[in-house]
């Protein structure tokens, strides 16, 4: 009995792939999710959301405002010219843009509504919501920190009495100052009781103007694209790996060897498998998008040319991944183990499980290594950003998908000769 | 038809073939016999073009393996040791698929499939998926898939492993039939009775070399292995040994049994029995052990052909 146990342990520890599957990959997966959900890295700072900043006012006050926003712990401010910043948001490279319009300084001093505007991509409205939350306290304090809050408040009263003479204005100023102090004191006492941090200057603040730079055509469209693209690609990866692993099954069952006895060129066996995998991938993606069209009303007809290109590129990249995985493993069982972990990692990283803007910046940077990321982004370009098939930002994603597919096919081709065709 | 010269093949440090050479004539059934790991499958793999030798030469039907592997592939058929078929497909679909890979035109292929399905007694079940077939039936389709393109040479690597008697006999009949049609057959097995029954000539392989080659008779003569007549007696009498030894010198004795090695059992057996009667020796049992490939192999190598 003990001999059997020792024998099995010995065999297990001699198999490096087993060790990788059992230990290294689960550790990698745990680390990935820990990073994704912000639990990793003891003592590390909070994740910063990037906010583009276009200062059209170019005054001392607007520069002071920049410093205030930039000092916020959750925001990373990136100065950019208005047009370039709007393009970055439109292309989906950035989420939102804060514009400080001309007249900011004057409005601050006159107690007028501050000409601040956030323009954003609605695809990232959750991220923009977080941005707003981070900005609100600073917006409230702007008149207090940069301008003169009492003056600002008094000027609001003056607006209500446009014909008042200087005596009345002085009176209003004095009463306004007393009122401000009384409110400040009252707010302070009340907030000390409740633990709030707001102060009297808050009521002076004006709402920030929020503009959708890219708007949803239908309320459910954004979630639908995420759900269809994200799920379709993840499930596609699982199915193509299964098809690719058919090569190993053929090796195990002897049919591959029998194929080699025939006049068929061995490389054609691999190509045939690649083509089959591609065809099945295409079918799977088409069916999923047709389903989304029929059941959820995803508008595939209006976007058909770009959708077709995205589906072709995604199928190519995903099926290449399936064949690649089959080529690096020795048995079907190994493929199954490897693929489950790799696909889950890629899907988590690439945005199949949740939109990538939920993830920390590092994870968003890492996302580019996954097929899922480029595929999902290309579908966003098609349905959300309404990109034409000649748009460079869209073509870049298609090119990367084709590049990934080509590279994986090349490696699979080399490994196929070494691993799969090794008959003896 | 097949010429193999000085074939060497190494796997890492292990030498699988150590300069193997043999010739096989047209329409001959040649048996490659040897224990597991002797080098039979390596030799077949090289001859069937899926494995490169380290050195040596193979010529099949005038084509040199090193320069004309594709022509050789069209000339040969291979029945692999494992049942290498698609279990989810029907017998007919399997045959159509494998025949198609050899470029047999579809119309001819349909006809050929039907012919072979009838030959192997499976025509009535041609549309059933292989998963519903017995092991023996699958073995028959396994052979049929190798001969769809009418190869001149057929390599059969242990084609009857795990086969029931009925299927085995049918396979033997088909092999004989194909051979009568002019097909050259290279048959590897470690069932010596199969080799004895089917093969015109036999090459015994051990440790990467052919240790002896020829017809069964030639092997017997070369190896000096004789048939054995075993006699058992009712009572033990030490004088029996001396009495018989006067007539036959090649004798081994044990307590109640004598083994007489004979070159001609038919001639010797009546003589032995009559001599025993004359001498008043009461025989209780007679066994005749014909010299066979197992005993030849054992004599030559000191090893059993099959793992016991």
Task: Describe the model.
The complex is a heterodimer of chains A (about 425) and B (about 300). Chain A is α/β, with parallel strands linked by helices and about 425 residues long. Chain A has helices at about 1-15, 15-35, 60-70, 80-90, 105-110, 125-145, 150-160, 165-195, 220-245, 245-255, 255-260, 265-295, 305-330, 330-350, 360-365, 370-385, 390-420, and strands spanning about 50-55, 75-80, 95-100, 115-120, 210-215. Chain A is elongated. Chain B has about 300 residues and is of the alpha/beta class. Helix content of chain B is about 35%, strand content about 25%. Chain B is built from 11 helices and 14 strands. Chain B has a 6-stranded mixed beta sheet, with helices on both faces. In chain B, strands 2-1-4-5 form a 4-stranded antiparallel beta sheet, covered by helices on one side. In chain B, strand 7, helix 6 and strand 8 form a beta-alpha-beta unit. In chain B, helix 3 packs across helix 4 (about 105-120) and helix 5 (about 135-145) packs parallel to helix 6. The mean pLDDT of chain B is about 85. At the A-B interface, helix 11 of A face helix 2 of B.
Name its key features:
heterodimer, A: about 425 residues, alpha/beta, 5-stranded mixed β-sheet, 17 helices, elongated, B: about 300 residues, 6-stranded mixed β-sheet, 11 helices, about 25% strand
């Amino acid at each position: 009995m003990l001999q059997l146990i020792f024998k099995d342990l010995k065999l297990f520890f001699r198999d490096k792939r087993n060790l990788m599957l059992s230990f290294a990959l689960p550790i990698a997966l745990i680390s990935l999710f820990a990073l994704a959900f912000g639990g990793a890295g003891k003592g590390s700072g909070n994740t910063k959301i990037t906010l583009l900043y276009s200062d059209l006012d170019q005054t001392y006050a607007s520069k002071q405002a920049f410093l205030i926003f930039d000092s916020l712990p959750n925001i990373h401010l990136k100065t950019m010219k208005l047009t370039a910043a709007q393009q970055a948001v439109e292309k989906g490279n950035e989420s939102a843009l804060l514009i400080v319009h001309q007249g900011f300084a004057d409005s601050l001093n006159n107690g007028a509504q501050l000409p601040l505007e956030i323009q954003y991509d609605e695809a990232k409205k959750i991220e923009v919501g977080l941005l707003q939350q981070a900005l609100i306290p600073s917006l409230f304090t702007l008149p207090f920190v940069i301008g003169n809050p009492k003056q600002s408040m008094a000027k609001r009263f003056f607006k209500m009495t446009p014909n008042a003479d200087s005596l009345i204005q002085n009176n209003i100023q004095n009463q306004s100052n007393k009122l401000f102090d009384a409110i400040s004191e009252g707010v302070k006492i009340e907030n000390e009781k409740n633990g709030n941090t707001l102060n009297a200057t808050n009521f002076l603040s004006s709402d920030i103007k929020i503009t959708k730079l890219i708007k949803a055509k239908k309320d459910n469209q954004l979630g639908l694209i995420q759900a269809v693209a994200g799920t379709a690609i993840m499930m596609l990866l699982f199915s193509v790996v299964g098809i690719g692993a058919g090569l190993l099954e053929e090796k195990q069952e002897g049919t591959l060897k029998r194929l080699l006895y025939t006049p068929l060129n061995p490389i054609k066996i691999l190509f045939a498998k690649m083509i089959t995998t591609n065809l099945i991938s295409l079918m799977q993606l088409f069916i999923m998008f047709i389903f989304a069209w029929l059941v959820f009303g995803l508008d595939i007809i209006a976007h058909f040319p770009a959708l077709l290109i995205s589906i072709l590129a995604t199928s190519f990249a995903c099926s290449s991944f399936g064949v690649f995985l089959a080529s690096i493993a020795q048995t079907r069982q190994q493929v199954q183990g490897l693929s489950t972990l790799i696909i889950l990692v890629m899907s988590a990283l690439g945005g199949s499980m949740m939109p990538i803007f939920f993830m920390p910046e590092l994870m968003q940077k890492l996302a580019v290594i996954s097929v899922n990321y480029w595929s999902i982004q290309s579908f966003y370009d098609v349905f959300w950003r309404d990109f034409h098939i000649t748009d460079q930002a869209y073509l870049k994603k298609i090119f990367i998908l084709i590049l990934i597919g080509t590279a994986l096919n090349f490696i699979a081709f080399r490994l196929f000769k070494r691993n799969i065709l090794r008959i003896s | 038809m097949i010429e193999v010269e000085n074939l060497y093949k190494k796997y890492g440090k292990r030498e699988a073939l150590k300069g193997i050479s043999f010739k096989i004539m047209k329409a001959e059934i040649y048996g490659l016999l040897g224990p597991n790991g002797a080098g039979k499958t390596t030799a077949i793999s090289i001859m069937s073009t899926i494995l490169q030798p380290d050195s040596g030469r193979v010529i099949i039907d005038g084509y040199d393996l090193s320069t004309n592997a594709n022509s050789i592939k069209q000339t040969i058929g291979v029945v692999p040791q494992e049942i290498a078929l698609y279990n989810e497909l029907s017998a007919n679909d399997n045959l159509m698929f494998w025949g198609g890979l050899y470029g047999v035109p579809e119309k001819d292929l349909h006809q050929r499939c039907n012919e072979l399905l009838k030959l192997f007694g499976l025509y009535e079940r041609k549309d059933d998926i292989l998963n519903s077939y017995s092991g023996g039936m699958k073995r028959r389709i396994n052979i049929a898939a190798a001969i769809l393109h009418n190869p001149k040479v057929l390599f059969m690597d242990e084609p009857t492993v795990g086969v029931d008697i009925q299927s085995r006999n049918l396979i033997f009949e088909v092999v004989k039939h194909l051979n009568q049609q002019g097909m050259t057959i290279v048959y590897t097995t470690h069932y010596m009775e199969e080799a004895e029954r089917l093969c015109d000539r036999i090459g015994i392989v051990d440790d990467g070399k052919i240790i002896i080659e020829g017809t069964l008779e030639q092997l017997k003569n070369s190896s000096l292995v004789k048939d054995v007549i075993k006699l058992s007696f009712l009572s033990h009498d030490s004088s029996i040994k001396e009495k018989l030894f006067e007539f036959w010198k090649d004798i081994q004795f044990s307590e109640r049994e004598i083994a007489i090695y004979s070159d001609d059992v038919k001639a010797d057996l009546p003589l032995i029995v009559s001599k025993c009667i004359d001498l008043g020796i009461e025989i209780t049992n007679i066994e005749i052990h014909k010299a066979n490939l197992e005993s030849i192999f054992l004599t030559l190598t000191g090893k059993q052909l099959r793992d016991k």
